[in-house]
Amino acid sequence: MKKLRKVYIALIMVFLYAPIALLVLYSFNDSKSRAKWGGFTLRWYQELFSDKVIISSLMTTLSIGLLAAVISTILGTFGAIVLYQMKRGPRNMMLNVVNLPMLNSEVVTGVSLMMLFALANLQMGYMTLLLSHISFCVPYVVLSVMPKLRQLEPNLAEAAQDLGATPLQGFFKVILPDIMPGVLSGFLMALTMSIDDFVVSFFTTGSGVSNLSITIYTMAKRGISPKINALSTLIFAGVLILMLILNLKDMKNPEGAKKIEKVKIPY
Amino acid sequence: MDNNIILSIRNVKVVFEDGFTALGGVSIDIGQNEFVTLLGPSGCGKTTLLRCIGGFEKPTSGEILYKGENIIPLPPYKRNINTVFQRYALFPHMNVAQNVAFGPSLRREDKKQISARVSEMLELVGLAGFEKRRISSLSGGQQQRVAIARALINSPDVLLLDEPLGALDLKLRREMQLELKRIQRESGITFIFVTHDQEEALTMSDRVAVMRAGEILQLGTPVDIYNEPESAFVADFIGASNILPSTMVRDHLVHFLGTDFPCADSGFGENNPVDVVLRPEDVKLKPESDPANGVVGVVESLLFKGVHYEMKVRTGADALLVHSTHARQVGTRVKMTVAPEDIQVMRKSDYSPDVRARKGEGGAQ
Amino acid sequence: MKHKNLMSLPFTLWAVIFIVLPLCLIVWYGVTLEIPVEYTQITLEDGSTAYKLEDGTIQTQEPWQKKAVISFSNFKRMVEPTYLKLLIRSLRVALLTTLICLLLGYPVALILTGKDFKHPSLWMMLIILPMWMNFLLRTYSWMSILENSGILNSWIASLREAIPAFDQFLSDRGVGNKIIFLYNENAVILGMVYNYLSFMIMPIYTVIEKIDHSLLEAAADLGASPSKSFLRVTLPYSLPGVLEGVTMVFVPAVTTFVISQLMGGGKVPLIGDVIQNQFGKSSDWHFGASLSLLVMVVVLAFMRGLHSIDKEEEVQKEVRIF
């Protein structure tokens, strides 16, 4: 029975990892067809790095991701504090509104933002892409900061002011450091959501601006390319290293063990 | 006295947004180096008054004069008044020393000086050597002391303490009461202390203000408050008391439990309804046949309380609480007598037992 | 009080512009149609032709203006056989995906929280790890395996060469040289299961992990067999996790258009594909919006239904829908 259980987990692991493993393997295959192994090569990696489209969409992904994460973290933290201070009735109403994008499917979010930008007569491009990423990231920041605010000692801000801090000093010296874990995990969530996003970006970008997801989509639709294998391998390696770092940190800090589960990427 | 008044609260009224009147026009003068306690049940407005002084609540009307100057428009950080919060509100991401140094380092004082002062303050509150400890590693009593040190380092003229001992267990609370009193004496700072614990109020304070429903009912020294409560509520709240609806026959003669008693009070008119307070320890038990003026009753229950016995003596519809070092067995018929100076006559109020019984709230007995 | 209101203004404004307004747009577009304005041709005093629009304005150019009218014809269009078939397929595919993920995923969560594995959180991390990769790449990995000239087919071909009996066996059953794995509903479901399986395992694992072990011990102590204590304790306690997992799989599954396009090669269009089309090639925003509205209603109704199973969770998550 115990053996059966272990075999089952092993099979699931094979199911999850075999496709990735094959991608990695074939990214080093010196033959364009997957039918045979043509020897080890780094050719696809070279081609990948000399592909201007891929490099520029990587840059777009990273810059949009960072900008959207920073802006939505500021906006979301601010929003969470505003919500936290509201009275029960209006707060619950606002919370429901803020939660709506998370309940909605991405297609609906993407389409609705596209219509919004069209209405505002905005030219689809980098700006609209950034705006849409900010708008779907903010709710996740609010969601991760809110519980930290709830745990806050109720008189903390007052205590700071009592000791001579202006409200602004009190916020930066006392409140912010205290809710920092929530803010950071919100930032991380926003960053991964933005980097991973395809659907919303698909509807809200234009004028030749495309992020990595969109480029991969276009390439994949055209057919299989070993360059994508190489790209996948690099991304997977990056993710693996990130997870290892996070996990090593967690070993020192048991509280962080839950962090990984929290930073999940919903569809 | 007038020159020594540091804080003068004049007719302060607080009406909350939902229409609830938290303070209905409170006035009190507080002197330098004084230990004043605001005592009352929860919801009586004592914390609201404290928050008005600290600057966290804006009074709807009235004045708060600090050294003669109205401070109501000043935000909390511009008042030389500090607060020790109910649940301490220590900054969890800072260690003990950083918490204590918060005020001075905001004012960008010299770092060496600050750390010397921090050590000094920690010594004052009995936490010498705790500088590097994390807040989460401290016990409730220690956190309490850090909160006090954090406030005192700013050398405030007035320290506000909002039920600071509420979260501590009984033994620790007793210890901290003495400690707080010592700190207040040594630092020479005015303490305004909020509590709902009458014993705490009586032990620590120079003056006690008993509050109820947004009003100060009585202000006085602990002895005054205890011995001469001016209303049934104060008498009841301050400690176990017998409050009896009575009639003032004339000056120095009051009628209750079907008997006339000579008393020390006067000025209540003739044949006016009043309330009488009898402290349980002031009711003396004598044999039934004793010729002294008194009321005969039957001992209904007997409890040993350590220093004394507590008995319930029934006479007709009423039962009196009596403390005595001498036990009387249940069922014994006794005569209860009271010395004239031990009878405290008070004006009728809405808290009088008979008034409350009519309202359906149930009397004190 | 006043500055507090002032502070909440920018955030409220943001929420209105980027959350409420877009949804209103969907509703507005969904229930309207654009039709050309009516006009009459008139002759002006100088003899030239002009056009008088319904609102009275006169212009010399032939009218191009359109106007929006409230109409529910979009919704009628959805029940046309073409679209109805598509809606039913979307629901079927999503439900099947959810079911398979549940059947595959629940045992994983259960086994990992049991005593067989010393470091369950490490194993959980391994299960979550692939999710960190872009889902297009994850889908692409299966494409490269299942493609007609993909890895699997090339392996089968080599096997056939190596083992004649195997070749014979396949040929007898009419299997050609290239087996077509992709471009059918099953491939789409496979792609979805692969992409969403972790979303099912994660919440179930989190919930089962939190079950107090003394509960199970108490059940055993009271004479419950392992299977009984599973049915009576673990299963009911894990229900909130199951519901969350079901939501996390069903919602993206019912609306995706990427997986159906990549794995289905356009041969298995789902409702998401149609919506995408309306905002792209077909450019019929009104119909697209109506379909989006339908998706929203389906998703919300689905979640509402789930939450009514487990009221407690509604309180915990504080994500109330209505």
Would you write up a description of this structure?
With 267 residues, chain A is an all-alpha fold. Chain A contains 12 helices and no strands. Chain A has a domain at 60-224: MetI-like fold (Orthogonal Bundle), CATH 1.10.3720.10. The model of chain A is unreliable at 254-267 (pLDDT under 50). Chain B is of the alpha+beta class. Chain B folds into 2 domains: 5-227, 3-Layer(aba) Sandwich (Rossmann fold); 240-358, OB fold (Dihydrolipoamide Acetyltransferase, E2P). In chain B, strand 9 and strand 10 form a beta hairpin. Chain C has 2 domains: 4-72, no CATH class; 74-147 and 182-316, MetI-like (MetI-like fold, Orthogonal Bundle), CATH 1.10.3720.10. With 322 residues, chain C is mostly helical. In chain C, a hairpin with a 5-residue loop joins strand 2 and strand 3. Chains in contact: A-B, A-C. Chains A and C meet through helix 1, helix 3, helix 4, helix 5 and helix 6 of A and helix 1, helix 3, helix 4, helix 5 and helix 6 of C.
- The rounded distance between the terminal residues' Cα atoms of chain C is 28 Å
Count the beta strands of chain C.
Answer: 5
- How many distinct domains of chain B? 2
Query: What would you give as the CATH superfamily of the largest domain in chain C?
Result: MetI-like
Strand arrangement in the largest pleated sheet of chain B: 6-7-8-3-9-10
CATH architecture of the largest domain in chain B: 3-Layer(aba) Sandwich
Basic shape of chain C: flat
- The CATH superfamily label of the largest domain in chain B reads P-loop containing nucleotide triphosphate hydrolases
Q: Name the helix and strand elements of chain B from N-terminus to C-terminus, one letter apiece.
A: EEEHEEEHHHHEHEHEEHHEEEEEEEEEEH
Just give the CATH class of the largest domain in chain C.
Mainly Alpha
Query: Spans of chain C of 5+ residues with little confidence (pLDDT < 50)?
Result: 312-322
CATH topology call of the largest domain in chain C: MetI-like fold
Which sequence of SSEs, written as H and E, runs from N to C of chain C? HEEEEEHHHHHHHHHHHHH
**What is the number of helices of chain C?**
14
Strand content of chain C: 5-15%
Largest sheet of chain B: 6 strands, mixed
Largest sheet of chain C: 3 strands, antiparallel
